[in-house]
Write a structure and sequence with these properties.
By secondary structure, the chain is of the alpha+beta class. It is built from four helices and five strands; from the N terminus they run βααβββαβα. It starts with a strand and ends in a 16-residue tail after the last helix.
Length: 140
């Protein structure tokens, strides 16, 4: 299978939206998915890369630059999804490698503690578990 990895464009919004449902992300309307992608593409801190095969989006990676006041800055993978029928073919690994090739610096990723397959994947490509933490959400 020959696929390409590239930076996303606005025209990829619907393909990204279709792939996103495979990790349990809520399905957005076409307008919402275009708006969210536009915001990321127009941001100096965010990047979105896609894997494309035969004109179809089969995976994506969202990367953002996290600045910290009292510790080192780093790049964080905000999301990585490969469609189920294309998993196990090195596409996720290729997306991460592409992001690393495009950006020099430390990389991090946060995974839900229940996503054991994701933990195994990141460990297999050289990421190491650093800490476990709780996420708190404010009321509003």
């Amino acid at each position: 299978m020959e696929y390409i990895i590239r930076s996303a464009s606005e025209s990829d919004a619907n393909g990204i939206n279709k792939v996103s449902k495979h990790l349990g992300y809520s399905r957005l309307s076409s307008t919402e998915s275009v708006t969210k992608l536009q915001e990321l593409l127009n941001s100096a801190q965010d990047q979105v890369f896609v894997a494309e095969w035969q004109g179809q989006i089969i995976g994506w990676l969202h990367l953002f630059y996290a600045r910290r006041l009292a510790s080192d800055n780093f790049f964080e993978i905000g999301g990585l999804v490969v469609s189920p029928e294309n998993r196990g073919q090195g596409i996720g690994r290729a997306l991460v490698q592409y992001a690393q090739d495009e950006n020099l610096g430390k990389f991090r990723v946060r995974c839900n503690e229940k996503r054991h397959d994701a933990h195994k994947f990141y460990e297999s490509i050289g990421f190491n578990g650093k800490k476990v933490q709780c996420v708190f959400q404010g009321c509003s």
